[in-house]
Design goal:
It is built from 7 helices and no strands.
């Protein structure tokens, strides 16, 4: 549920970052350059967040990624300069990459190794509706209101919901209702 919920907002920055930057007056070449920071952040997040998760626990780290994405979306909501968008792109990429990197390990911890390939396949398939709906609705909202404010608020809200779901998972795991993810 965390993955499916969060997915509604995850592709919106990937699809709409450059148009957003251009909409606020940043030239296309600079907007595309700023967008590349998202990829750099994603690579860093995929490599380094796992090590942090091994120390603090995977469900804690998963919740932290969701909460961090919510904070970064809030930052994006008020970003109107190139340096603000650069910070957004780098941090969004880092937390997005970290979240993606944590999913297989968290799934294996939670469900065990026996059926992990099918479970991971299901996890990654569960994002398809969100990946289709999120960017499409963001584009529709922009077409209707000539603003990205509503789509960004939507990203923020789905991240808050995903954070709450991660907290529930963390509490369940701590209470002994399911296998521990803290290894």
């Amino acid at each position: 549920a965390i993955n499916a919920t969060l997915s509604v907002g995850l592709l919106i920055p990937l699809v709409h970052f450059v148009p957003y930057a251009q909409d606020i007056g940043i030239g296309r070449a600079l907007a595309v350059s700023l967008f590349s920071l998202l990829g750099l952040g994603s690579a860093l997040g995929r490599f380094f967040i796992g090590g942090v998760a091994d120390r603090i626990g995977r469900t804690t780290a998963l919740g932290a990624m969701c909460a961090s994405l919510a904070l970064v979306y809030a930052w994006w909501l008020f970003s109107v300069t190139a340096w603000q968008l650069a910070i957004f792109a780098a941090l969004f990429g880092t937390f997005y990459g970290g979240f993606v990197a944590l999913l297989p390990a968290a799934a294996a911890d939670h469900f065990g190794a026996r059926n992990v390939s099918g479970i991971i396949g299901l996890l990654y398939t569960s994002v398809a509706p969100g990946f289709l709906i999120g960017p499409t609705l963001a584009g529709l909202a922009f077409d209707l209101w000539q603003s990205y404010t509503l789509p960004i608020i939507g990203c923020l809200l789905v991240s808050i919901i995903a954070t709450a779901l991660a907290l529930v998972l963390h509490r369940e795991n701590r209470g002994g209702h399911s296998p521990t993810l803290e290894q």
